[in-house]
Amino acid sequence: MTAPLTVPQKPMTTVPAPKKPGRLWRRPDRTSMATRSMLVGSVVVGLLAATILDIGVVGAAYLIVGVGVLAVIGILTPPPLTAVQWAACVGALALLGVAAIRGAGWLAFVCIVAAWVVFTWVLVGGRTWTGIVAGTVMPWRAALRVVGFVRRRKLRVGTSPRVPTMRVVAVTAVSVTLLLIFGSLFVSADPEFAKIFGDAPAVRVDEPIARLVIGALVAFVTLSAVYLRRRSPSVDALAPKPAVPLPLWEWAVPLAVLNILFLGFVAVQLKTLFGGDKHVQVTDGLTYANYARQGFWQLMAVTVLTLVVIAVAVRRVDRGDRRSRNLARGLLGVLCAFSLVIVASAVHRMWLYENQYGFTRLRVSVFAAEILLGVVFILLIAAGVRMSGKWLPIGVLATAVVGLLAFAVFNPDAYIAEKNVQRFENGKTIDTFYLSTLSADAVPALDRLPEPQRSDALMYLKQELLGSEDSWWEFNSSRERAREILAG
Questions:
Q1: CA atoms within 13 A on the CB side of 72
Q2: Going by C-beta distance under 8 Å and a sequence separation of 6 or more, which residues neighbour residue 207?
Q3: Which helix (H) or strand (E) holds 415?
Q4: Do residues 209 and 36 lie in contact, with contact meaning Cβ atoms separated by under 8 Å?
Q5: 3-state DSSP call for residue 123?
Q6: Selection from 147, 119, 187, 153 nearest residue 401 by Cα
Q7: DSSP conformational letter for 30
Q8: Helices (H), 200-321
Q9: Strand, helix or coil at 241?
Q10: pLDDT (tens digit, 0 to 9) for every residue of the chain, 488 residues total?
């Protein structure tokens, strides 16, 4: 017998799989090319910001620049915004509008940061916690891509050559730079020449370097927003993958133990939690400072840590198992209910402390933050009814925006001044030095004080408000009202 004939075979080679595009950014295509209107619009908004925006002045300029940015991304940049996106844009503009109404710089800063979060959500549309947070830094992460976005502009076939848009932008930037630098020098050299610019409401040539930086920054952010509108990244792809569910007892036992602890604390300390003035007065060695201040921060830490526990537990529950789902709904629902009691106790304690020792920005702010945490727990209970919280991140974001706008309507600086003046009228002491650090929002209440407390509380505000005037783009209704009161 002869051996079977074997044909030598070639060694098998593995064909490399084609590279997949990144999870976050998509590959560029024709939609990634910038149009002339997008570039010109971004430059115009940058020039507008360089002309009128002063980050040290709380005024209407923030709202004006925000409207300009919205016009570029909402009108000049396809695709059209949806109704939800337009509603979010209105909310962002309302937050920017706080700078034109309230004189408190700290409140305006918080509202501007919140407006940035809402604005970036409009651009990238994150639906998860990770997506919303990651979206806030996307305009900066897209810096190099924006350069390519601008350089990919091409002429259509059969059209006559035109002046490159980038050259127009460069010439405009150089011209504005020369205007700001040399104009600033001329204004400083001759008061008569300075009057020309002082009478022109749309021209600002002071602090040229700072204004150039602001203008370039706003123009870049606008152009980045245009790019993100055209090529929105998949920020939700950065969210962590679903966790492996744990056996029922491994998560149910810790939650049950925590619920028993909460129940025992609320039951044993019921008089302490809501005892108020009577409890403080009849307990030896207990002061308002120990009862309210220390207790408030401890209870606030409890509420925050409870949110962390709930977030971890939800990821480990087997939602496909009916028994696990029902048990998680019950344990987490009871935990949220106990947390609402803790929130109510913390709010009550801070209210007692403020009425006894006076109101400050910190105390009023954490008071409002604790109320917001209580609303978050209510949203968690609503999500737990169906054990589905896909809407929860956007719901919490919308709630925070509405709450912040309500806080601005509440007018914290004016409220602080009003309450402290009422305490003084009732025979208690008053800290005029602290009240003098408040904004123009507090002037109507401080003006009611008798002398010398009135002069002490309004000393710095008089120097700030009566020694300067606002341009039309720096308009602030609170400062205008305060100037009328102080001038009278």
A1: 34
A2: 184
A3: helix 412-425
A4: no
A5: helix
A6: 119
A7: G
A8: 208-230, 248-268, 270-274, 276-282, 288, 295-316
A9: coil
A10: 444 444 444 444 443 444 444 467 766 665 557 788 888 899 899 989 988 898 889 999 999 999 999 999 999 888 899 999 999 999 999 999 999 999 999 999 999 999 999 999 999 988 899 999 999 999 988 888 887 777 655 444 444 445 555 556 566 666 666 666 666 666 556 666 666 655 444 445 556 778 888 988 999 999 999 999 888 888 988 888 888 888 988 899 999 999 999 998 888 667 666 555 565 555 555 565 566 655 677 888 888 899 999 989 988 888 888 898 899 999 999 999 999 988 888 888 788 778 778 889 988 998 899 999 999 999 999 988 877 788 999 999 999 999 999 999 999 999 999 999 999 998 888 999 999 999 999 999 999 999 999 999 999 999 888 877 888 889 999 999 999 999 87
Burial bucket for residue 25 (CB in 10 Å: 0-12, 13-18, 19+) = middle
Which of 475, 473, 472, 479 lies closest to 64 in space, CA to CA?
Answer: 473
C-alpha 471/C-alpha 457 separation (Å) is: 27
Element (H, E) at 153: none
For 450-453, the CB contacts below 8 A with 24+ separation are 453/424
Neighbours of 475 (CB within 10 A): 17
3-state secondary structure of 450: coil
**C-alpha torsion angle, residues 190, 192, 197, 199 (rounded to 10):** 160
Residue showing tokens 């087997």: 318
Residues 105 and 58: beta-carbon distance below 8 Å: yes
pTM over the 0.85 mark? no
Contact 435, 408 (CB under 8 A): no
DSSP 33: S
Tokens of 434: 């602290």
Residues 6+ apart with CB under 8 A from 95: 111, 112, 114, 115, 118, 401, 404, 405
Structure-token pair, residue 94: 């309302």
Q: Quick one: tokens of 95?
A: 């937050």
Decide: residue 381, CB within 10 A, 0-12 exposed, 13-18 middle, 19+ buried.
middle
